[in-house]
Write a structure and sequence with these properties.
Strand content of chain A: over 45%
Strand content of chain B: over 45%
Helix content of chain B: under 10%
Number of helices of chain B: 0
Oligomer: heterodimer
Order of helices and strands of chain B: EEEEEEEEEEE
Shape of chain A: globular
Number of strands of chain B: 11
Order of helices and strands of chain A: EEEEEEEEEEE
Number of helices of chain A: 0
Largest sheet of chain A: 6 strands, mixed
Helix content of chain A: under 10%
Structural class of chain A: mainly beta
Radius of gyration of chain B: 14 Å
Shape of chain B: globular
Chain lengths: 113, 117
């Protein structure tokens, strides 16, 4: 089993739709979680961290389910500009640094008119 | 704001040739990283430098060497390129001073598309 697994998609949704992605992780001791966004042929950029209590940033909501070992990303009112690949990133330890991060392969989202 | 700058953007090598990928950051970050990204695989860590003067192997270090020239610069060298090293390479940096990785945010360079024939 991969350490971090994502459905590669693509998820094709109409503009204005709500779409959700899940990401499962295998290490139950994982401590921190993130969603990165990567546009085609560009570098990844941090979208949001995922906190135990869940967190929201505008149209984006991230949630963590430790019991089932997955994190989710919900995008409301999708925009054409949301089209990108969304990378799930997990850190298995509490201390240390970015060298411990494990990246998923990404879920591709295409928002259409 | 330059952030993380890596060069070159594109490179084609023949098998056996050598080259160095350059990376520099202007955010006064302690930690720097080199990743490769291949289709169907997540970003994989090649080498990292937690702080100036230190370097450590990541998940896929074979065939690569690195140099942390100073706090700003972290270079990746391919001594004898192989077709298996065809990939997109990303340099990244992070603050590295937070004791807890929870707040570790990576800033990436724009990537280098490398093809080895």
């Amino acid at each position: 089993r991969k350490e971090v697994e994502q459905d590669p998609g693509p998820f094709n949704v109409p503009e204005g739709a709500t779409v959700a992605f899940n990401c499962t992780y295998s290490n139950s001791a994982s401590q921190s979680f993130f969603w990165y966004r990567q546009d085609c042929r560009k570098e990844p950029k941090l979208l949001m961290s995922v906190y135990s209590s869940g967190n929201e940033d505008g149209r984006f909501t991230a949630q963590l389910n430790r019991a089932s070992q997955y994190i989710s990303l919900l995008i409301r009112d999708s925009k054409l500009s949301d089209s990108a690949t969304y990378l799930c990133v997990v850190n298995p330890i509490l201390t240390g640094g970015g060298n411990k991060l494990t990246f998923g392969t990404g879920t591709q989202l295409k928002v259409e008119l | 704001n330059a952030g993380v700058t890596q060069t070159p953007k594109f490179q084609v090598l023949k098998t056996g040739q050598s080259m160095t990928l350059q990376c520099a950051q202007d955010m006064n970050h302690n930690s720097m990283y080199w990743y490769r990204q291949d289709p169907g695989m997540g970003l994989r860590l090649i080498y990292y430098s937690a702080s100036e003067g230190t370097t450590d192997k990541g998940e896929v270090p074979n065939g690569y060497n690195v140099s942390r020239l100073n706090k700003r610069e972290f270079s990746l060298r391919l001594e004898s390129a192989a077709p298996s090293q065809t990939s997109v390479y990303f340099c990244a940096s992070s603050d590295g001073r937070d004791r807890y990785a929870t707040n570790e945010k990576l800033f990436f360079g724009s990537g280098t598309q490398l093809s080895v024939l």
